Structure formats: structure tokens, C-alpha cells
Amino acid sequence: MHPGDLSLPRRASGASLLEMMIALFVLGVGLLGVISMQSEAIKYNQQAYTNTEAQQLATDLAERLRIQPEQFIAANGTFGNIPDYVDWQTLVARSLPKGAGSLTARAEPRAFDVVLQFEQQVLNTEKTTVAVATKPKAETLSYRLVVQL
Q1: Following DSSP, what letter does each residue of the chain receive, concatenated?
Q2: Pair type for strands 100-105 and 138-148
Q3: Which residues have CB under 8 Å from 104's CB, separation 6+?
Q4: Structure pTM?
Q5: Residues 106-148: tens digit of each pLDDT
Q6: CA distance 70 to 55
Q7: Cβ 78 vs Cβ 85: under 8 Å
Q8: Tens digit of pLDDT for each residue in 51-60?
Q9: CA angle, 96 as apex, 94 and 97 as ends, to 5°?
Q10: In terms of Cα–Cα distance, which of 121, 117, 111 is closest to 146?
């Protein structure tokens, strides 16, 4: 090459426009995959949180039963007048989606069933090509804990 020569060198270095477009396309597909996985992780995390909350609430009533067993045994199946039980039902209604809790005396002496019912979003495992704005499906789940005093 001479100082006044304006011709291009034989081999130009750098990336062409086509190579850059392909790289951006691959990067975009990868980012979409990451976003999709993140949204699924959030859904599963919410389900796990709700299930853990239900287990903790059932254990909470079991501990209340163990602290004051005479109060619950003397109630003879009508627990609506026991302040601990009323507080617990309020806590269940506030903590779980459409949550309801109940306590029943079992046939065995000094044994109780703690039952929690709540709604949980059904995770859609089928992949669809068209996104339709619909209300997520929910199912009612029950959690039962048997307490022996």
C-alpha cells in the first residue's frame, strides 16, 4: 500500500453486519429462555410458600393444643368459644388464599384433627403458542395434621 492508494486491503478484519445480527438473535433467544425459566421459578416458589404457611399454621394450633389441653378437651367438640382457636382461625383466613381451618376431636381420647383448606394456583405445564389472557386456574387443597396429646 502506498500513501496515496485508497484501495481496500485484501482482508478486512472485524465482524460483518450478518454476523452481528446472528449473534444478537442467539443472545435474544437465550434471554427469552432465562425470562421464561424465571417466571416458572416464581410460580413454584409461590406454591412452596403457601404450602409451608399451611404447615406452620397447623403446627401453631397443635402447639396451642399442647399448651392448654384441658381447655380444648373440656370444650367437647365446640371450640368456637376458645379465644386461642378463634385467633387461629382469623390467622388462617388472613394468611392463606381463601383459607379456612377447623379442629375436630377424634374418637381416640386426647386426639384431634387439624384441617386447613386453601386455594392454590394450578401450574400450567403445557406450552401453548398463543398467549390468551385468562384467569389462572385454582384448586382447593387440604392439609391435615393429627395431634395426639
Answers
A1: --TT--PPPSS--S--HHHHHHHHHHHHHHHHHHHHHHHHHHHHHHHHHHHHHHHHHHHHHHHHHHHSHHHHHHTTT--TT-HHHHHHHHHHHHHSTT-EEEEEE-SSTTEEEEEEEEEEEPP--S--SS----PPPEEEEEEEEEEE-
A2: unpaired
A3: 77, 112, 113, 115
A4: 0.70
A5: 888 889 999 999 998 777 655 555 455 566 688 889 999 999 9
A6: 24
A7: no
A8: 999 999 999 9
A9: 100
A10: 111
Domain extents in the chain: 17-148
Question: What residue type is 1 in one-letter code?
Answer: M
What's the Rg (C-alpha) of the chain? 30
At which residue does the C-alpha cell 433467544 appear? Answer: 29
